[in-house]
């Protein structure tokens, strides 16, 4: 049994993600953008699609959608994330991207304004998940698509599972991930619960399928940089290490990567992602 903790305030959430933004943009977005391209192709996002990216980070869904010709609005609660998304869009000449600072639980957007509203490991982190999903449904036109992708089980996110294993080996008493309840990134790991939550938000024709995100890591350092920048919890894990523990964790991970790749310094790790769609 775990001790209840007070949920973070909106300002605390904003500050945490603002702090992570430089590393998130450098390490996490390039990895997840390839997966974003994959699921957008399957959702038939194309020229003229009115597309909303909720909790957009620095653009793993928004930018691939714009490249496909969609008219994109991307929102995130963290101003630093929004600025990095806008900078990426400007660098690519994607003038059809509007990047806005906005709380996804309270979208300042019109009803029925989008053909597709999507979120990749974003709305699943909201303190009020049901509210976030209901807002996505509200701003999506009848017959449109709400697309939500979220992590499957932690053990099937190898970049996390491998790091947790290395931390347990190097840090006496390391607690790892809580299980009751699980951390927010894994609250939709069960496909049946995921589908039920979407239906509770007012969506119909709900489907949930599992996909695999393949992520190449060139070194243990790159892997740890990704863990550090991808979520405040990962940042806490790495920040709490002594120099000796950090060295040991890195050595363990280097060995695991080399074993996976047959002796090369880097390897591809696999992550199961639940990809759900529903219709308002």
From TrEMBL:
GO process annotations (BP): methylation
Molecular function (Gene Ontology), one example: oxidoreductase activity
Domain of life: Bacteria
Keywords, sorted A to Z: Methyltransferase, Oxidoreductase, Transferase
Ranges for domain Methyltransferase type: 52-147
InterPro entries, alphabetized: Methyltransf_11 (IPR013216), SAM-dependent_MTases_sf (IPR029063)
Protein name as catalogued: Methyltransferase domain-containing protein
């Amino acid at each position: 049994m775990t001790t209840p903790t007070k949920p973070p305030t909106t300002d605390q959430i904003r500050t945490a993600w603002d702090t992570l933004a430089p590393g998130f943009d450098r390490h996490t977005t390039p990895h997840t953008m390839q997966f974003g391209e994959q699921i957008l192709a399957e959702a038939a996002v194309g020229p003229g699609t009115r597309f909303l990216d909720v909790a957009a980070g620095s653009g793993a869904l928004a930018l691939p959608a714009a490249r496909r010709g969609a008219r994109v609005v991307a929102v995130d609660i963290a101003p630093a994330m929004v600025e990095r998304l806008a900078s990426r869009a400007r660098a690519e000449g994607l003038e059809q991207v509007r990047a806005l600072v906005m709380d996804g639980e309270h979208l300042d957007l019109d009803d029925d304004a989008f053909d597709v509203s999507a979120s990749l490991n974003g709305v699943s982190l909201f303190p009020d998940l049901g509210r976030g999903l209901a807002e996505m449904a509200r701003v999506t036109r009848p017959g449109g698509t709400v697309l939500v992708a979220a992590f499957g089980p932690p053990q099937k996110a190898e970049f996390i599972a491998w790091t947790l294993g290395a931390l347990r080996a190097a840090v006496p008493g390391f607690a790892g991930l809580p299980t009751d309840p699980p951390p927010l990134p894994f609250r939709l790991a069960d496909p049946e619960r995921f589908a039920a939550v979407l239906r509770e938000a007012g969506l119909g024709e709900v489907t949930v399928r599992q996909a695999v995100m393949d992520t190449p890591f060139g070194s243990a350092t790159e892997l740890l940089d990704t863990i550090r920048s991808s979520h405040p919890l990962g940042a806490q894990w790495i920040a709490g290490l002594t120099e000796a523990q950090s060295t040991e964790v890195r050595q363990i991970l280097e060995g695991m990567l080399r074993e996976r790749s047959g002796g090369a310094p880097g390897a591809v790790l696999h992550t199961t992602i639940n990809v759900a769609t529903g219709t308002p």
